[in-house]
Design brief:
Blueprint (H helix, E strand, L loop, with lengths): L11 H5 L8 H11 L2 H15 L19 H6 L2 H4 L8 H20 L36 H4 L5 H18 L7 E7 L4 E6 L2 E6 L6 E8 L5 E7 L16 E3 L1 E4 L2 E9 L3 E7 H14 L7 H19 L1
Antiparallel strand pairs: 1-2, 2-3, 3-9, 4-8, 5-6, 5-9, 7-8
Amino acid sequence: DPEPGSIAWGCCEILKNFEHSRWMGSRGRVTAAFSFSWDSIATQTAEIYCEQTCRHDLPPNCTNARKGDTTMALALVGPALHAHMAVFDDDPNVANGLALWRTLRLLLFVVADGWLSFMGNEFAHPDEVDLPRPANHFSLAKNFRRWNLADDVHLKFKHCEFFEAFLSHWENVFGSQSARHLFVVTCSEEEQVVVLERGDCLVAINLHPTQSYEGFHTGCMYSGPEMQLLFDTDEERFGGFGRLTARSLHPVLSGKDSRPHSVKLYLPSRTGAVYVSSHLFDQRYAARWDADPVMHFTADDFVAHLATVKAECMQAIS
């Protein structure tokens, strides 16, 4: 809170008149004296702020890197993130790490009621954030984000930034995070598969590093003649291999897993996919989906779009 008086939350009366402390009695004064902590006050103030902005207990989309910790992308990909991110580089560590990175982001996005995107990590920034502090002698060496990496069409960082933007635009159309309905249909540790319903979408996640599942039979609550693939993390425009057919249709079958209906899906390894009832999509979401250009962009289209937006902003400022 930038207001100067905010630090006095809960301390107003004490600061005005120390005679107020006598109301606590002798034991209360002793307890307050030994338990007083500015760190505790700072923590509680931060919790109040998060509650007021509906950010309390939100799952972060990256590891906490403000004190030199590694980013989630660097933890999954390893040193190859610094040397093998060219678009035509087929390094397996990068391909597998980024596939899991996209899948985990989709899973976190779906189960959350909100999304706090830390500035910079949305395009798999390779370096940790290390703000100036006594431990690093107030160094500015890592106190920045290399946005030029995501703007370079020859690097895979563009795919990561575009995927982040795509998730946000998908939420604008479907409002899944604000939907009350969240039901976990399948959570198999052996198969490493998670299938859940969120709002009007069926989300299937396969976290297995090597095993793909053909005709994976899962229950669902969605009726209609067919379930339609909306998007998946393995699309080529996100940097994937394109193992799923875009907008493919899957017949809705009889009930399974305590759900009134079911569907058979192909789940490639390290991939997440989002499905929606075809007739429900046509009736409720098709117009808004088609009207949003980002839903139809490629990564290169998105980079060009951002360049245009940045140029317009700079012109407006000048």
